[in-house]
Amino acid sequence: MADDRCPGQDRRFWKPEDVCETSCPCCGHGLEFWKDEPKRTCPRCGSEVRHPKLDLGCAKWCSKADECLGQAGDASSIRERLIGAMKAVFGADRPRIKHALMVLNHAERINEAEKADPLVVTAASLLHDIGIQEAERRYGSAAGRYQEIEGPPIARRIMEALKIDEPVIEHVCRIVANHHGAKDIDTPEFRVIWDADWLVNLPEIYPGLDPAGLRQKIETIFKTTAGKRRAQEEMMNDE
């Protein structure tokens, strides 16, 4: 029987350089990628990590591209470019880069159940705090209300440079402008981001809560069923 696999994916022809080693951007755990793996889940922290050197050039001509890569092409490219833009704004501010990546990981997991627009979720996850340094520069404060003022213009510039469609830009900017106050938006995408951000922030804002208090916070703060379930699984496993 003829072997109809894509030649680029047939491991009989692979070389040592077709294996890539990298580190999880959230926890630093070492990961190994085969060249046909668009993403992997970090076994230490659960973050979804994209292949840092994935070459999708064959997708332009290969008849098996859709079967092989699915939606990894454009989505992966935009995602990685948004991550790069976020890192460029934050510079050496590793805690805020880590926070954005952790929120993205939670949001992607929540959205597997909620089915909100994945591009809006990705962009808003990475850019929700993008105005925090400008808020500190202008007002001497990282308070949420100042982030909501300074964040949308920066987020818009980033997304326009990436040629993201205007309706997506507008939606993401509305999320950035409300990610602390939740005043003027209640879309599925906003609810996913809200819950993902709280998954990271809740243990820091309310440390040492007893199980009853933690259960009450989860029930009153979180807006999605998937977000509540993820919070219960992650925060109440020692109950």
What does this structure look like?
The chain has 239 residues and is mainly α. The chain has a domain at 73-239: Hypothetical protein af1432. It contains ten helices and four strands, in the order ββββαααααααααα. The protein has helices spanning 65-69, 72-90, 94-114, 118-127, 132-139, 144-161, 166-176, 188-205, 211-221, 225-235; strands at residues 19-23, 30-34, 39-41, 48-50. A two-stranded antiparallel ribbon has the order 1-2. A two-stranded antiparallel ribbon has the order 3-4. β1 (19-23) and β2 form a beta hairpin. It is globular and about 55 Å long. Mean pLDDT is 82; it is low at 63-73.
Question: How would you name the CATH homologous superfamily of one domain?
Answer: Hypothetical protein af1432
Neighbour order of strands in the largest sheet: 1-2
Oligomeric organization of the protein chains: single chain
The helix-and-strand class reads mainly alpha
Helix percent band:
55-70%
Quickly count the helices. 10
What is the gyration radius calculated from CA atoms? 20 Å
Task: Give the second-level CATH assignment, the architecture of one domain.
Answer: Orthogonal Bundle
Poorly predicted runs of 5 or more residues: 63-73
Mean pLDDT: 82
**What's the main sheet like?**
2 strands, antiparallel
